[in-house]
Amino acid sequence: MSRQTGGANRPAFAVETELVVAGRDPQRYDGFVNTPIVRGSTVLSPTVADLEGHAGRYTYGRRGNPTLEGLEQAMCVLEGGAGVVLTPSGLSAVSIGLLSVLQAGDHLLMVDTCYHPTRRICDVVLKRYGIETTYYDPLAGAGIEQLIRPNTRAIFLEAPGSQSFEMQDIPAIVEVAQRRGIVTLMDNTWATPLFFRPHDAGVDISIQAGTKYISGHSDINIGIISANAAQFDRVKGTYGDLGLTIAPEDAFLAARGLRTLAVRLARHQQSALTIAHWLAGRPEVARVLHPGLPDDPGHAVWKRDFKGASGLFSLILKPVSKASVAAMLDHLALFGMGYSWGGFESLIIPFDCRSSRTATHWEPGGPTLRLHIGLEDPADLIADLEQGFARLRAADDAG
Ligand SMILES: *Cc1c(COP(=O)(O)O)cnc(C)c1O
Description:
By secondary structure, the chain is an alpha/beta fold. It has helices at 15-21, 48-53, 66-79, 90-101, 116-128, 170-179, 192-195, 232-241, 248-258, 261-280, 299-305, 322-329, 378-398; strands spanning 83-87, 107-111, 132-136, 152-158, 183-187, 205-209, 223-227, 285-289, 312-317, 347-351, 368-372. The strands form two sheets. It has a seven-stranded mixed beta sheet with strand order 1-7-6-5-4-2-3, with helices on both faces. Strands 8-9-11-10 form a four-stranded antiparallel beta sheet, with helices on one face.
């Protein structure tokens, strides 16, 4: 039901156009532009034959709902896979993707720079069910082959790396995986299918926290799993067997965000690059971690494989005290301090990913900050950061 239905009947459009037209059917809803929020568990059948033959388009709320289906279809067009399922959060999209392909006795290769809570899925949940995880260096590339065991069933990628923004050589890893019959999954939340399409690169299962750019307004948690024809039935089956569904209000809000994704992302990209360049020239900053910057170690791979960069990146400050960093962050006027990102608003958080790395060594040599650049005027954001740096320097001089 969540398979792409429009493909055979109408021409394929540019992605900006698909964001506007995909997964909508105004004729079906008396001309209303948006697919309405349909609530419901029970779906009635007029006759015994219809009931037993599942003749209706829907059979039960958890098994299919028009509001969810509209978003699934739109995401399917964008991802270019065989089908999509919607999950209650980005993290549940990761766990369901992994549970779909792994079973007891299997071995998983997980990128060392994955989103931190993904590690807990591996170290706590999968471990409990007899699945072993080895973390690998994000820069492994084709060298990942050395880590493959007879029971290696899946390789999980995420690029750029969580918080530290290392790029991965995705085509090299996929080539090894395909040759060895191993399933690949990728957390593609940072790029979205606008800037990188995992299935086009041969990745089997593409995962996103729709919480971030897809919904784009910091008002819901939602996960999106897209799978190719080889893996979709497994993913859809696991999803259904585990009894998952999401609220139609959340699907509606994500679909509403999706319509403006291209214009929002273009702006996030442009403003983030402007601010990243400005930060790279600041005396307080040791290094900016953004693959879109020409001197970033991941720049060549990013440029080869990705069509753009979103609004999230990090920086390493030259050594200063924790109190000086707090003096900078505590009084920012525009940058909020909070988890998540991908909304219209700018955010900044201090982070320390040393405890989230086991296959690689992370020693930045100074305090680290992660920034999400929102849709505000970048000049206002730069002024806010400039005042923050003045407070940082004053606190550092006083300390
Ligand atoms: C936020 C995030 C998730 C998890 O999404 P939630 O909706 O918070 O569960 C997963 N992966 C990445 C890369 C994320 O940034």
